[in-house]
Specification:
The complex is a heterodimer of chains A (251) and B (464). Chain A is built from 8 helices and 10 strands. Chain A has 251 residues and is α/β, with parallel strands linked by helices. In chain A, helix 5 packs parallel to helix 6. The longest helix of chain A has 15 residues. In chain B, 24% of the residues lie in helices and 38% in strands. In chain B, strands 5, 6, 8, 9, 11, 12, 14, 16, 17, 19, 21 and 23 form a 12-stranded mixed β-sheet that branches. In chain B, a hairpin with a 2-residue loop joins strand 3 and strand 4. Chain B is globular. Chain B is built from 11 helices and 24 strands. In chain B, helix 2 packs antiparallel against helix 8 and helix 10 runs antiparallel to helix 11. Chain B has 2 domains: 408 residues, no CATH class; 45 residues. The chains are: A alpha/beta (251), B alpha/beta (464).
């Protein structure tokens, strides 16, 4: 059985009902697989990630989304997250006044429904921070407040490790990162990955994909998957761009 | 400091006692005032002052700005409610039904752990007042205000009504006509208290008014942290609170005056607070304003000596049906005086928060510095928040800054936190607690916990 199954999905934006952003999209991801979605700007990549998590900015007009065999199409975002779907944001938010440590404790307690063992938790946070080359002083800083773009992305991966979801959607996690930061993020992804969990990587480039065992690459144009292949497809797009698909689509 | 969220016991504020009253006066007239004065067996100059205040009240008008107060009918207010016990020195002598309420509020426990002295007022009279013996030996005075009139008449005469005159405004005149209870504090020169004093004002009787008077003198080079707590259970009838706080900070002295108010939603809260600060003195106001139907509260600092400082940190939270009109007034009367203000407000479910800052910098206030920051957070689109600064600066050498920000929690923030498994309410709670954290930090730990508990209760709508 697929972990994620998207069937014939159509969405419009909450503030623009005239145009479908996702236009009959189908996607199936099995447990343990890494999938990649590539597509030009405006093709609906981020909309797809947001739609899976039921962001109210997007309205689904047709189709449905199954996770672990259960229909999550209309489930609220927090419930989808609790079922094991995680999304790493392009632009993570800041929470002034709440420390990283306090945030992670709330996050953990909320996910498990139990009071956290403070010692165990701080050990876990410290271990994960070490792995991501984050200074442990981050714990006492206000969540994402004044963090650089790279630090915020690492903080997303830290939460990925802490939440350990069944499916991680990485929405352009590589964008705006320098070579060193990409390396660290990639290490984080490798730490997370095991035989049963799955990743959906949304990206423009090969940077994050080198060395990852990618099962399938999908090309998204105008809200529809128009091509699929293995990692060689990603490499081809990385060098040739999307012109071929856009021309085809216009014809 | 960490934000600690305890399990919420929403019932403690709602506790009521019956059969605790032995005498009650209703309404406002010369007759009621004379009856109160007689009951208190007070000197004639106090009665004269009360009657003068009544005269001023009767010819005064409501302010022509701020919330509408025309619904207040004093004939329906129990203006003096005397509990069955008065001014005990040990909690054992306070009857169980009254003591139980203060127990639940945690007052005797805090007294043992972290306070140098406690006053507890129940309706119109102080039921318990005590201070550590070693402080008494150092000359510290901390007594019920009514008692101070009898024990320290000269000190009281020297300071009473000197910060807040009885003709300041209509509702201070009402206060002086009816004042009862409160605390009197004198900290002698050079004495620095390492633990706070706390007075707690509990209004229990339905339809009653509370008019406590707090007067604090911190003499030269002395230091004090004073904590004021207020609460009341909810009723359908209107309750009225018109307290007054007069503070005197002498040369090089320092006073931190912290307040946590949590009034029920039937409370009309019209409070007046003023502090006179001498050379090198510092007043620090820390205020958490919760509850009430309407609050009008604008603490004032008069910086009369050079290098005098006013620090002001406040937070207010207005929910459904609440109109919290608060602010700060500062008068800079001397060179190198300084004001630093950080005020925050949260409004929800149609609540209204207004913050008025009123700064006057006089000609003599060379090189003064004023830094004001006002932030408000609205949790929905039906709530209101307003910042009204009025500044008069008559000196060119002043450094002045005023920042105001009005924010709404964006959908993107909520979505982000929901994608991490938080429900919408939990997400809002996290944002609000973060917003309030800089204020919570200014309170001692126990009170920060209390403040966070109040914020949680407001968020859950479990008050009122």
């Amino acid at each position: 059985m697929s972990l994620l199954e998207i069937k014939d999905l159509y969405t419009i934006a909450e503030d623009d009902h005239n145009k479908h952003i996702l236009n009959g999209l189908n996607l199936s991801i099995n447990p343990g697989e890494i999938h990649v979605i590539m597509g030009p700007n405006g093709s609906g990549k981020s909309t797809l990630a947001n739609t899976i998590l039921n962001n109210k900015r997007y309205i689904k007009t047709e189709g449905n989304i199954l996770f672990d065999g259960e229909d999550i199409t209309d489930l609220s975002t927090d419930k989808i997250a609790k079922k094991g779907v995680f999304m790493s944001f392009q632009i993570p938010i800041e929470i002034p006044g709440i420390t990283e440590a306090h945030y992670l404790k709330s996050l953990k307690e909320n996910m498990t429904g139990e009071k956290a063992n403070v010692y165990k938790l701080s050990k876990e946070v410290e271990d994960n921070m070490n792995k991501l080359h984050m200074d442990k002083s981050y714990s006492s800083r206000e969540f994402n407040t004044g963090f650089s773009g790279g630090e915020k992305k690492k903080n997303e991966i830290l939460q990925l490790l802490m939440m350990n979801p069944k499916l991680a959607i990485l929405d352009e996690t590589d964008s705006g990162l320098d070579v060193d930061a990409i390396k660290i993020v990639k290490e984080g992804i490798e730490l997370y990955k095991n035989d049963t969990n799955s990743i959906l990587i949304i990206t423009h480039s090969m940077k994050l994909l080198d060395g990852l065992k990618v099962d399938k690459v999908h090309v998204l144009i105008d809200g529809k998957i128009v091509d699929e292949g293995d990692i060689s497809l990603a490499k081809k797009i990385d060098s040739e761009g999307y012109n071929k698909y856009i021309n085809e689509n216009n014809n | 400091m960490k934000t600690i969220i305890n399990d919420i016991d929403t019932n403690i504020y709602e506790l009521k006692s019956t059969n605790t009253t032995i005498k009650k006066e209703v309404g406002l007239s010369e007759k009621t005032i004379k009856a109160i004065s007689k009951e208190k067996d007070e000197p004639s100059w106090i009665l004269d002052l009360r009657l003068k205040a009544l005269e001023f009240f009767n010819k005064s008008q409501d302010p022509n700005w701020g919330p509408d107060l025309s619904f207040l009918n004093l004939d329906e207010i129990a203006t003096y409610v005397k509990p069955k016990v008065n001014n005990q020195r040990t909690w054992d002598d306070v009857p169980d039904d009254i003591k139980n309420i203060f127990d639940k509020l945690g007052i005797p426990e805090d007294e043992k752990k972290s306070l140098a002295g406690v006053g507890a007022q129940f309706d119109s009279e102080v039921v318990y007042h005590n201070i550590q013996d070693k402080l008494k030996e150092q000359g510290v005075i901390y007594v019920n205000f009514d008692e101070a009139i009898k024990l320290y008449p000269e000190l009281v005469k020297e300071y009473f009504t000197k910060a807040v005159p009885l003709n300041d405004h209509k509702y201070i005149a009402l206060h002086y006509a009816l004042f009862s209870g409160g605390s009197f504090v004198y900290i002698p020169k050079g004495v620095k208290l390492d633990m706070p004093l706390q007075s707690y004002f509990r209004l229990n009787e339905k339809g009653a008014g509370q008019f406590e008077h707090t007067l604090i003198i911190v003499d030269e080079d002395a230091e004090l942290h004073f904590i004021e707590g207020c609460s009341a259970p909810g009723y359908n009838e209107l309750n009225l609170h018109a307290g007054c706080v007069e503070l005197f900070v002498k040369k090089r002295a320092r006073l931190t005056f912290s307040t946590i108010e949590n009034w029920s939603r039937n409370m009309l809260n019209l409070n007046t607070k003023k502090c006179l600060v001498e050379e090198d003195g510092c007043i620090e106001w820390v205020m958490g304003s919760f509850g009430s139907k309407i609050s009008m509260l604008y603490p004032m600092s008069m910086l009369n000596g050079k290098n005098a400082t006013c620090l002001f940190t406040s937070i207010s939270f207005a929910g459904n049906g609440q109109n919290l009109d608060t602010g700060l007034k500062v008068i800079h009367n001397a060179p190198n005086t300084k004001t630093v203000m950080d005020s925050r407000s949260i409004s929800k479910d149609g609540g209204i928060c207004t913050f008025r800052s009123n700064v006057y910098v006089g000609k003599k206030a060379d090189n003064s510095m004023i830094s004001m920051s006002c932030a408000s957070l609205m949790l929905d689109s039906i709530s209101k928040s307003d910042t009204i600064p009025v500044n008069t600066i008559e000196n060119d050498s002043v450094e002045f800054s005023h920042e105001a920000s009005v924010g709404k929690i964006s959908d993107d923030v909520i979505f982000y936190l929901m994608s991490r498994g938080f429900s919408e309410e939990e997400a809002k709670g996290l944002i609000v607690r973060g917003f309030a954290e800089p204020i919570a930090k200014s309170f001692p730990v126990e009170y920060a916990v209390e403040m966070n508990r109040l914020i949680n209760m407001e968020l859950e709508g479990t008050i009122g």
